[in-house]
Amino acid sequence: MTNIPVTTWSLEQTSPDDLLPAAAPEGDVRIVRAEAPSPEFSRFLYASVGGDIQWIDRLSWTYAQWQRQLERPGVETWVVYDRGTPAGYVELDPQDDGVVEIVYFGLIPAFRGRRIGGHLLAYGAARAWDLAERWPGLPQTKRVWLHTCSKDGEHAMDNYLRRGFKLFDTKVEEEAETATPGPWPGAYPG
Predict the structure, then answer these.
(1) Helix (H) or strand (E) holding 119
(2) What DSSP element (H or E) covers 92?
């Protein structure tokens, strides 16, 4: 098996004032919180959004692992719909001391390049900043962070920077080259 270098960039916002808005896309585009924890739906989003960019870390999770993650206080999934069809999502995960990680963010391939991603990212980051308002007992958000890597979409880093995220760390590591799994095996050539 061949190893490939993968660069991972970590980015953050340290104030809600850092967040830069994005123009709303045209048409019937809505963002809705998935309030009922659903391992099936979350796995569908994860596999559909990340299948062509090698998101593989959660593919082996059991139903119980998905359920535990989704039921953690403060974990939220916000789904963007285009004319009623799920187009992508952002998953928020509160950590210690008022830190919220945007753990996953992205669009299903058919919905990329239509100005939906910037809108979803800005909306998701805003929900990270006001997370404590929906979850009594969580501390007020002091920092929102995420990471992206060289395997992600070609416009990912630019989108994060345009939304006001600032780079705070860069790492390069060798990873085993893996086949692109697609939302189901063989869905994407490559």
Answers:
(1) helix 116-129
(2) strand 85-94
* 58, burial (CB in 10 Å: exposed 0-12, middle 13-18, buried 19+): middle
Distance CA 89, CA 79 (A): 4
Question: pTM of the predicted model, to two decimals?
Answer: 0.93
39: CB partners within 8 A, 6+ apart: 63, 66, 67, 70
Give me the DSSP letters along 23-39. PPPSSSEEEEE--S--H
How buried is 133 (Cβ within 10 angstroms: 0-12 exposed, 13-18 middle, 19+ buried)?
exposed
Cα–Cα distance, 19 to 2 (Å, whole number): 39
Per-residue pLDDT of the chain in tens (190 residues, 90 and over written 9): 788 899 999 999 999 999 999 999 999 999 999 999 999 999 999 999 998 888 888 999 999 999 999 999 999 999 999 999 999 999 999 999 999 999 999 999 999 989 999 999 999 999 999 999 999 999 999 999 999 998 888 889 999 999 999 999 999 999 887 777 666 665 655 4
φ and ψ of 71, to 5 deg: -90, 0
